[in-house]
Amino acid sequence: MSSLDLGVIGNCAIASLIDRKGRHVWHGIGRLDGDPVFNALLGGDDPQGGFMDVVVAGAKDIGRQRYLHNTAILETVIDGSGGTVRIVDFAPRFRRFGRMFRPPMLVRRLEPVAGRPRVTIRLRPTFDYGAHKAKLTSGSNHARFFGDTGVLRLTTDASINYILHETEFSLDRPLNLIVGADESITDNPDTLTKTFLAETESYWQTWVRDLNIPFDWQQAVIRAAITLKMCSYEDTGAVLAALTTSVPEAPNTPRTWDYRFTWLRDAFFTVTALNRLSATRTMESYVRFIVDVVETGSSRDDVAAIAPLFPIAPGTDTTERLIDTLPGYRGFGPVRVGNAAVTQRQNDTYGSMVLTSAQMFWDERLPRQGDLELYRQLCVVGNEAQRTALTPDAGLWEYREREEVHTFSAAMCWAAQHRLGMIAKRVGVDSEAREWLARAGVLRQEVLQRGTTQEGWISGVLDRDMLDASCLVLPEIGLLASDDPRFHATLDAAAKRLMKNGFMMRYSEADDFGKPSNAFLLCTFWYIDALASVGRRSEALELFNNLLARRNHVGLLSEDIDPKTGELWGNFPQTYSQVGLILSAMRLSRSWEEGLWHAS
């Protein structure tokens, strides 16, 4: 049965998800959102295709799996009746010829570490979301698996015939499988694999060495940071919400979404996490991606038409459609490709665009600084934020069948105007700064007046009572202070009505699909941060450590969690969850001085 006990390898061009048996169960050909030629994750209980694996004769248990220290290189060790096999999986990434080498290539190395294990190598890609089995051609040391949508080429120093006929053999020496684009590899596979492995290990360890990390929970933060990096598509700078589609938020629910896109709503929080980590290049690329969205909409004088989500590269169809060729995760469908949220109105995106772009006006590390021209383009966004702030939208949670005036959306529109006032000061137009701040002040008063309930807590929508976890971040964006009585009341109300067994729900009332049953991990991090901000650190620490214990066996998180069983659900790995972990750890950790000299 499928589970989210998965490791992830990647190189910011492609990625692959690997289960504890060493099976590649999700891999998009060519790039992060490509046609998943390995799709067993959505293949039901016993998929017969859409994977690459190694069957070890006599293996009774799942493998022992870990990442090599501070890398995206995954090791799986499997004991069989004849001996033990070590499997090393990675996607090459390192600097070569003055630029980053990140080919669309998966590399797998098999090593016998005890006895004479007998193994069967199986490579069963399918194309067009499982609709077509691969056609095949082969040579002396390679095989080509192809369909109408692409080609997958295997180069190996193992027996091609043993692989194509899935014949068991004794593993008495290291063997290497290089799976990727349809390009000839003339190097010796063993030499090439060892070289690529050493270079990739060095790259990741060097990247980690340059991170700013907290004293406490270092391993958790490093793993989250590496995973966040692997969810970035370096060619354009986009960051995906997750690497998968259609892993349901809970069992027996149609809440199955395609998350292989960039959401504007995520940008501010993601950039904040990257900035705290000092992952400057990744942050710069993502900011550039968002700024280009702003500039494109502004130059066309059509900011209102900017969609809330974008493909990671041009030319991708975002239209949502259902796929009937894959049964879904554990058979729970439907499987969706594309996302209908692209057509929604989400007014919080205006704040996200301005808050993200604001990084360019203050961050002296960035080679391109914000200037008067960029400010003018952001003004178009700010004007749209003012126009739409108090109008109905689908909201942060993307309701599909209803629109209301959501407090978080209105607050982000306030943030757009408030930050534009600060940016205007920065670029020397003080009169406009005063105007933006005055507008923001008026909007803030109305949002808080209409959003505060008779009981004194902040509602998730204006003019009626509806508790929403997004109100926990209002101090983060500056709408009100964390010591404001209204925020304390909101915090208490969320604890009473949205908290389940230490995990926070997004909301409790029914939506388009009924009442949600699973908690949203990011909201739990928001609640932890909120507790810390009001001085309730011990409570925050307890919840944070409890949440860390719910990560999978290699330290990764999905989107949702069953508050009763602790099982992970939702698309995987979830960028928002990694961001939440990083920011909460930064907030709660002792300083390095305190940790080193006053540890107890």
Describe the fold and architecture.
This protein has 16 helices and 30 strands. The chain folds into 2 domains: 7-207, Beta-galactosidase, Chain A, domain 5; 211-589, Glycosyltransferase (Alpha/alpha barrel). A hairpin with a 2-residue loop joins strand 26 and strand 27. The model has no long low-confidence stretch (mean pLDDT 95). Helix content is 35%, strand content 20%. By secondary structure, it is of the alpha+beta class.
CATH architecture of the largest domain: Alpha/alpha barrel
How does the major sheet shape up? 8 strands, antiparallel
Structural class: alpha+beta
CATH class category name of the largest domain = Mainly Alpha
Main β-sheet, spatial strand arrangement: 6-7-8-11-19-17-16-15
Residue runs with pLDDT of under 50 for 5 or more positions:
none
Please tally the β strands and state the result. Answer: 30
What percentage of amino acids are in beta strands? 15-25%
Helix-residue proportion: 25-40%
The total domain count is 2
Note the quaternary state here: single chain
**Average residue-wise pLDDT:** 95
CA gyration radius, whole angstroms:
25 Å
Distance between the termini: 44 Å
Distinct helical segment count? 16
